[in-house]
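Ticket opened by: R.M.
Priority: normal
Category: complex prediction / small molecule

The reporter submitted a protein together with adenosine-5'-triphosphate and asked that the result be attached to this ticket for the collaborator who will pick it up next week. Submitted input follows.
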Amino acid sequence: MIEIQNVSKSYGKKQPLNRVSLTIPEGEVFGLLGPNGAGKSTLLSILATISVQDQGTAQIGGLDSKKQKKQVRRKIGYVPQDVALWEQNTVKENMTIFGRLSKSKATKDELKKLCSDVKLEDQWNEKVSSLSGGMKRKLNIAAALIHDPDILLMDEPTVGIDLQSKLEINQLVKRLAQDGKTIVYTTHDLNEIVTLFDRIGVLKNGAFSFVGTASEAEERYSSDKGSDWVYAMLQ
Ligand SMILES: Nc1ncnc2c1ncn2[C@@H]1O[C@H](COP(=O)(O)OP(=O)(O)OP(=O)(O)O)[C@@H](O)[C@H]1O
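Result attached by the on-call engineer:
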């Protein structure tokens, strides 16, 4: 469970988060939406203990993101917006390095299994620099799962990649949720907004303008003229 209470964060005169509150129950796939610059990455980075909020609290599995960073990091896997890999090393070497960094005792077979879960088994001995953008994204996700986190924070994991990799990542997210993991996922993708999430939340002007299921959003934002409810919701 994730509990965010009255979280605020400013950068100079900009205030992307202004007393934001949200509860995400265990096992939920939550879609974090909003226009460019709305504060989605900022909120994820606070949950990932990379940024610190100016005010308010964020609790992850009962642990405080500010005061119990180390313990929180054991509970979360973070997939940043920008791919972060060792390009000159192989997939296997990358997984081994990430395994050491997360102090995981995962065996080679377990690391390989994580790669096969994201359909990267054939690339095990390939250099990262030779992989496609979609493959790199999938490797970043596999790396975030090495320490078997309860919660996965994913910042636009499918932006700018091929359709097949995107659908594979979507399927993986659904499987992880079935296994009981809680997932917070930011996206601008229309199909994902409509199909992937148990609930969505729209960040706008520093706060959530909507939190609920896609059906509830459709009901609220559809007009009689049948205008596009996703567009209306994000305005
Ligand atoms: N380190 C930083 N220093 C200064 N300003 C920042 C910093 N990080 C984010 N911002 C600003 O805070 C606001 C929120 O940024 P954030 O990246 O959280 O938005 P976002 O909703 O994730 O956007 P996008 O959909 O474009 O990824 C933006 O105006 C951004 O320019």
